[in-house]
């Protein structure tokens, strides 16, 4: 049975044209880490909370820079509207400040939101969302766009749709 839906944001509901090359260059200067990719692995290696905050602040700047250039990802938005009546969560690698602005601009409503400030681990984000929505993995559908999303859904035991 389907009782709740969890959405990814970038590449699923919306497309965010973030300038990652500029952002990674700034991350390198700040952290001394030469190869930032894969980003999420690099993030988990940053143990200093002040450095991590600065990294997240730079990331937020790059997100806010492109707020007016964000476009709708049609397939994901159709699913959002299809499941509008069900309890919904958002799991995203974007930041809280960015998500607040995006939610207002695109009129997106969620019962729970987990951002990079909560955790950058997609599986952990799904578990947090399932708990918050008071549902079970089997009764939850996760909609994402990456292999990483599908792996996290499988690890958690959720249903999954890739857009
Ligand atoms: Mg995505």
Structure notes:
The protein has helices at 20-31, 39-45, 49-65, 74-82, 96-106, 122-132, 147-156; strands at residues 4-7, 14-15, 71-72, 88-91, 112-114, 140-144, 159-162. The chain has 163 residues and is an alpha/beta fold. It folds into two domains: 4-16 and 71-162, HAD superfamily/HAD-like (Rossmann fold); 20-65, no CATH class. The strands form two sheets. A five-stranded parallel β-sheet has the order 5-4-1-6-7, with helices on both faces. It has a two-stranded antiparallel ribbon with strand order 2-3. It is globular and about 50 Å long. The model has no long low-confidence stretch (mean pLDDT 97). Magnesium ion is lined by residues 8, 10-12, 144-146.
Quick overview of this protein structure:
With 163 residues, the protein is α/β, with parallel strands linked by helices. The protein has seven helices and seven strands; from the N terminus they run E-E-H-H-H-E-H-E-H-E-H-E-H-E.
Describe the SSE topology.
Elements (H helix, E strand, L loop, with lengths): L3 E4 L6 E2 L4 H12 L7 H7 L3 H17 L5 E2 L1 H9 L5 E4 L4 H11 L5 E3 L7 H11 L7 E5 L2 H10 L2 E4 L1
Parallel strand pairs: 1-4, 1-6, 4-5, 6-7
Antiparallel strand pairs: 2-3
Helix pairs in contact: 1-3, 6-7
Magnesium ion binds next to loops.
């Amino acid at each position: 049975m389907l009782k709740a839906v969890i959405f990814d944001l970038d590449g699923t509901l919306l497309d965010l044209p973030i300038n990652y090359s500029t952002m990674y260059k700034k991350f390198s200067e700040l952290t001394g880490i030469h190869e930032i990719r894969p980003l999420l692995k690099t993030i988990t290696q940053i143990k200093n909370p002040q450095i991590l905050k600065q990294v997240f602040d730079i990331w937020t700047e790059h997100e806010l820079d492109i707020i007016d250039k964000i476009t709708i990802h049609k397939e994901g938005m159709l699913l959002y509207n299809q499941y509008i009546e069900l309890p919904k969560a958002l799991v995203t690698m974007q930041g809280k400040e960015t998500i607040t602005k995006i939610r207002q601009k695109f009129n997106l409503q969620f019962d729970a939101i987990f951002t990079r400030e909560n955790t950058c681990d997609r599986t952990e984000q799904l578990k947090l969302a399932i708990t918050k929505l008071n549902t079970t993995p089997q009764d939850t559908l996760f909609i994402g766009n990456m292999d990483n999303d599908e792996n996290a859904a499988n690890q958690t035991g959720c249903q999954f749709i890739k857009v």
